[in-house]
Amino acid sequence: MEKKATVMKFGGTSVQDAAAFARVAEIVSGEKENSPVVVTSAMAKVTDALLQAFEWAKKGNATTAFESLQPHFERHIKVAEELLGESGRKSLQLELDYAKQELNDLLVRVSRRSLPLQMLKDAIVSYGEQLSSRLLVEVCQAKKLNARHADARRLIVTDDEYGSAAPVWDQTERLIRLELQPLIAAGEIPVLGGFIAASRGGETTTLGRGGSDYSAALVGAALQAREIQIWTDVTGVLTCDPRICPEARTLKTLSYEEAAELAYFGAKVLHPKTIQPAVDLQIPVRVCNSRQPTEQGTMILPQSQSTPRLVKSIAYKKGITILHITSARMLGAYGFMSAIFQIFERHRTVIDVVTTSEVSVSLTLDDTAALEAIIKDLERIGTVEIEPNQAVVCVVGSGLRDTSGVAAQIFAAISDINISLISHGASSVNMTFVVQENVIGEVIKRLHDEFFTN
Ligand code: ADP
Ligand code: ASP
Ligand code: MG
Predict the structure, then answer these.
(1) Per-residue pLDDT, 304
(2) How far, in Å, are 34, 146, 440, 442 from residue 198 at the CA level?
(3) What pLDDT, on a 0 to 100 scale, did the predictor assign at position 104?
């Protein structure tokens, strides 16, 4: 019987320098017998640098833009010098030379607006993963691994929503199988860049910030993998963001449902879209630490296999705007909600939390790109009030499903803090509410103390 693949995704910090690349090769080597397929992010900070370069070029400074990337090109060369032999170094240098020429050309095009900007932006930002994946192949080969580069743009087909393209599943599944299965069968280790893809027309697209997790899940689902591993800079999914609570602890297990809520409400450790492809095929997702590879990390599993616990974790998302829409016409009228939602649909804007009363609807957004136009449309229905600088807090745990005391416990812990909008999530594994952004650190710390310290 054919062996099932193991998809291993490495985030930006897991490939930030030579030492990190060496650890990755070591970790992949440890899975050699389990048919690994490797998905890598760009080296840490490279995506940000490419986006910044794009902005400079947009302002007409293509030369400054290109020069700003020089330190990052050098970081790739430094890894090659430390870890590769002569032939590996040469082939990396060749890749880098091509990349430089192409990037220079793209940045000039941006400054001259000679192609649609969103299309050029994705083309530019894709070089982070193009280069890191080429470099990782060389590093793996230098460690005697049978690694082979696979271009993600030949595997993942998307619509042409540049910047956050949506995969076309049937084609993607077929291409991944067609291209990768023969390599795996021949004992090779495919290595591809996450985050990047191509539209049906063949233009480079990207899956949205943090999208390499999503690429890994797509590859895992198409190959019906044994397991999808997300290797990052913390040991698994923790009880909350360790940057706010250094005492946060690793969760041994999480259900798909819990992980999806956490990711959606800001736990950056997983991209929100990562879980779905795994859920459909019940593929376990493991989150582990590339700096501490022997630690267990977190297993994300179907509900039945995960241990229930009252509260598992607390996530938050800053930069939220609340809209309150009030209309006397809403009293006893139908069609009101649908009219509101149609406006958001028309402006392609996602709503996170919704609460209603007899005459008003309050909702939260994190994408305010179309806010002005949305407000204009909403004002035809009722009066609109806006509260910027808010944060959503999301307390997650399948135990919340049938525990009435948790809400009381949450709100008692922060009784002196003003809360607007409360929603006991439809999935019933979460309790979500909104506070002012400037108190978020305090709120998270108190809740973490309440549920995890004692
Ligand atoms: P990568 O580059 O590996 O994709 P990310 O920076 O996207 O890594 O995600 C890992 C980071 O997510 C951690 O360093 C941590 O600060 C943050 N994070 C936020 N919430 C959580 C959580 N509940 N558990 C673990 N990490 C979290
Ligand atoms: N490099 C991309 C980003 O920084 C994708 C990823 O790392 O997942 O957003
Ligand atoms: Mg990430």
Answers:
(1) 67
(2) 29, 26, 38, 43
(3) 98
Take atom 8 of ligand 2 and give the residue whose Cα is closest: 210
The dihedral built from the CA positions of residue 168, 348, 161 and 190, taken in this order, carries a sign that is negative
**Average model confidence (pLDDT) for the chain?**
94
Q: How far from the centroid of its chain's Cα atoms is residue 38's Cα? A: 17
Question: 213 alpha carbon to ligand 3 midpoint, in Å?
Answer: 7
Q: Looking at the CA of residue 208, tell me the nearest atom of ligand 2.
A: 9
pLDDT band at 27 (very low <50, low <70, confident <90, very high): very high
State the DSSP code for 359.
Answer: S
Mutate to test the pocket of ligand 1, among 45, 46, 269, 452 (most ligand atoms within 8 A of CB): 269
What residue's CA is closest to ligand 2, atom 5? Answer: 210
pTM for this model (two decimals): 0.94
pLDDT in tens, 131-182: 999 999 999 999 999 999 999 999 999 999 999 999 999 999 999 999 999 9
Give the pLDDT score at 429. Answer: 86
Ligand 2, CB cutoff 6 Å, lining residues: 11-12, 41-42, 47, 128, 194-195, 209-212
Q: Which two tokens stand for residue 69?
A: 């990337």
Q: Which CATH architecture is the domain 6-233 placed in?
A: 3-Layer(aba) Sandwich (3.40)
How remote is the CA of residue 146 from the centroid of ligand 3, in Å? Answer: 27
Mutate to test the pocket of ligand 2, among 43, 47, 129, 130 (most ligand atoms within 8 A of CB): 47
> Which whole-number Å values give the CA distances from 280 to 75, 171, 256, 271, in the listed order?
39, 17, 10, 17
Question: pLDDT, tens digit, for every residue of 253-262?
Answer: 999 999 999 9
Of all ligands present, the nearest one to the C-alpha of 50 is 2
